[in-house]
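Note to self: the last two entries modelled the partners one at a time, which told us nothing about the interface. This time every component goes in together.
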Amino acid sequence: MSKRVRLDGLVWLILGILMCIGAIQLKLGDFHTPGPGFLPFLSGVLLGIFGLILTFPTPLKRSAEGEEAKNERSSVIWNWKKLINPFLTLLILFIYLLILEPLGFILTTFICLLFLFKLSEPKRWLRPFILSASTSILSYLVFSVWLQCQFPRGLIKFW
Amino acid sequence: MSGFFENLSLGYQVAFSAANLLYCFIGVFIGTLIGVLPGIGPVGTISMLLPVTFGMSPASAIIMLAGIFYGAQYGGSTTSILVNIPGEVTSVVTCLDGYQMARQGRAGPALGIAAFGSFIAGTIGTIILMFVAQPLSGVGIKFGPPEYFSLIVLALTLLSYLARGSMVKAIIMAILGIGLSQIGIDVVTGRVRFTFGIIDLEDGLGLAPVFMGLFGVGEVLVNLEESLNIEVFKAKIKGLLPNLRDWMDSIGAIIRGTFLGFFLGVLPGGGAIISTFVSYALEKKLSKRPEKFGTGVIEGVAGPESANNAASSGAFIPLFILGLPSNAITALLLGALIIHGVHPGPFLINNHPEIFWGTIMSMYIGNVMLLILNLPLIGLWVKVLKVPYKILFPILLLLCIIGSYSINSSKFDVFIMFVFGIIGYLFKKLDYEPAPLVMAFVLGPILESSLRQSLLISGGSMLIFLTKPISFSCLIVALFVLLSPIVLQRSRRIRAKIS
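The predicted structure of the combined assembly is written out below.
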């Protein structure tokens, strides 16, 4: 059994225990009148049990594992070079969250899309610029003007 | 019988209104589009477009979203046949013979039979749905809290069993989904649960931000790791109409695929996916030339393509009759109905006939639209295939952001989408199937209220789940499904020892 699958199991086990502790604090009630913590407690117990099954070899785990899961043990899932684009995309999304209200929808969307388009064309500016500007304006027209969605205006008050 | 025709007439009026015709067209168009585009599926798209439906009536919203669902089944075949990359998981099997037909210069008949097969299956599926759903809604009324609880347990167990990869991981996903659905104020006691003092969490996690994160952002992040410069089929596509010989070879496969797909689609889990594999295996078994399968046999395209379309009609049975979804897409449709203030269940067909009959009628229209979209306009979809992913992914991410924000005009919802985007990415990397989580997340509140009500009725006795025949049967089947891998493995070992 791979170390990673065991680690997964441990994470679920810990999460299950934490759920149980949280559920007990909420009050479990009894079988006659289940309290707010009743189902979360049951969920925590089950999560812990299946976390244990994943951590330690059991008949259920061995037989319930598909071929895919068996193959995964030998395959490399974290290729650090490949992680650059997802990481940068997440970073841009996080920055989007931070600047959305101060800068407003259009400006934030334009800036973030510009960098997202530039991820695949790092040496060029014109095409990403045109693509991000047109997408921002089009999305504003469709969602804000046509569908009446409310977006933060930020710096550009007249939009 | 007169009631039936009155309902049909109502459905006709709803579906043929100018607005609903437009929504139906938008739905099937988007469905075909995302079916053609690899890297985005109907689950992600429906999540992203949920907020767009807020200004519509519930019937219009379901007409459009259902159009995306069955439209994607049509579009998925195009990429399978032309580039050997399934646009949808339900079109994986189509690659086997469809792509081989394209390589032999028979892309036209392959695309043609896929579209005609889908049309026939979609139409027959809708007819069965129309005749079966209303009588079955009487059965739905017999479902009390214990039956609902056990049926949800069975649905989640089956979904975990049918999920790709490890069953244990799929069960963990389902339990996690139930756990996530507990966040927020408990409706019975008013106690706040697992919010960690965050006021925005008191109403619970929003369906749309969670779905968009898991399926939209998560999918994009995984795809960004790979180079998606797929090679598009370059030869000119001609002769889309299958000849008489093609029809003779395919018609049986289409009819068998239709009925098989519809009935497997009703089952909780990946009915549509399984139906394509079962249909392919069945056609191979019945064929006079089984050795030719995989080399470009038209039945290998016709059967599975019909099955996946019929399955999408079958999936509406549990949704409309019991208010229970059978897969992640119908879970989203259930979420959409709830957002629109409609509570699906046995009374939906009687209380909101415009939704049920309007959707049914729109499915006929949608299937005709799809036939037109997928045959004469095939050139357009081939061009769409050439849109590079580097242009597509920023637009997809923007749709996720807008979709999350616009529900409550809340930045917190975008944050939730962001967090679930990371979680969805990790789940995909670590081979955790998010579909059971989504189903459990939607069904969690119904599961909890059914459990509590059952225990109140029985005075705290768990035996109530075993004394009701429907509930007992569901739990027995769930137990059997849960233990079947162990039993099968044991029996295989014993057989190996004997031999």
